[in-house]
Amino acid sequence: MIVTTKLLFEHAYGKYAVGAYNINNAEQAMGLFKGNIDAKSPFIIQISKGARAYTDKRMLEGIIRACDEIFPEAVFAVHLDHGDEQTCYDCIDSGFYSSVMIDASHDPFEENVAITKRVVERAHAKGISVEAELGQLGGVEEDIQVDEKNAHLTDPDEAKIFVEQTGCDSLACAIGTSHGAYKFTGGQGIHFDVVGEIQKQLPGVPLVMHGSSSVPEDEVARINAAGGKLKEGAKGVDIKQYLPAAKLGVCKVNIDTDGRLVWTRVLREFFLAKPEDFDLRSSGKIFIPEYAKFIVSRSEALGSAGQLDSVRELALSKK
């Protein structure tokens, strides 16, 4: 059942966070649905600008529609991740998306406000929610790269002005997380003081945490043992910080890198052990349950595990 992002946030606010996962192919979609059903968790499917161009946007939409039929018990929203203005309009006009993210955080404040406001007006006219971003995370997100020296945390006072002027429905905040697999090398983590101050300034407004993968050391070690060359010692977000952040109004937690690490580990280990195999389905059959197991672990950390039936009741009551 595809529902609005707004409904998921209404149910989650202050209690737990909804996991938002990027997909690019059928194997990821199958593992994502299986894992969330096993965890009895609602979730958000994210499609990035890059994923829409990887095959064709209609391909991913077709896969999601098929999964909705194959797994009728699933409750989820479909979200555009890190969209520019034109991509947002394309997704809004498609009628398929529950919400879109306009990322103009790299622009000056006034321009970010103007762009976001235009997208909000277009989206709200069709009942679609808008996520915007204020502040800049370090790291790499597809074609967006921000050096750590240029990253800066979201200013709580600016956040209040920004939401009031744009009318956005949720706000992605820079609160100490980072995009990509190389992340932190020190003891950095979520700045809970900043999250708490933003919540005080914006009570009831759903907050979003990007760059929230944990980059498990064991995954990196296994990838490298199978021929990879990932930087060791990189650290992501401690998954034990997910739920405390959710209590402060973080309703959506983006997790992409960790899923890519699972994919890379499975394929590297499989073809290292079976160099004679050339059937892509052989590794895919391993990846799907491995990814599902990973999704269950993240649902439990987010506090969304076990919430599926309650969310479904809320959704049906609003029909």
Classified in CATH, the superfamily is Aldolase class I
Q: How do the strands of the widest beta sheet line up side by side?
A: 1-2-3-4-5-8-9-10
Categorize the overall geometry.
globular
How many individual helices?
13
Q: Mean of the pLDDT scores?
A: 91
**Secondary structure: helix percent:** 40-55%
- Quickly give the CATH architecture: Alpha-Beta Barrel
Tell me the strand percentage band: 15-25%
CATH topology: TIM Barrel
Q: Please tell me the total number of domains.
A: 1
In the predicted model, the low-confidence regions spanning at least 5 consecutive residues are: 138-142, 144-150, 179-187
Distance between the termini: 12 Å
Largest sheet: 8 strands, parallel, barrel
Computed Rg:
19 Å
Folded structure, characterized:
It is a single chain. By secondary structure, this protein is of the alpha/beta class. It has one domain (5-317): Aldolase class I (TIM Barrel), CATH 3.20.20. It is built from 13 helices and 10 strands. The strands form 2 sheets. Strands 1-2-3-4-5-8-9-10 form an 8-stranded parallel barrel, surrounded by 6 helices. It starts with a helix and ends with a helix. Pfam families: F_bP_aldolase. One of its GO terms (molecular function) is aldehyde-lyase activity. Its cofactor is Zn(2+). Keywords: Metal-binding, Zinc.
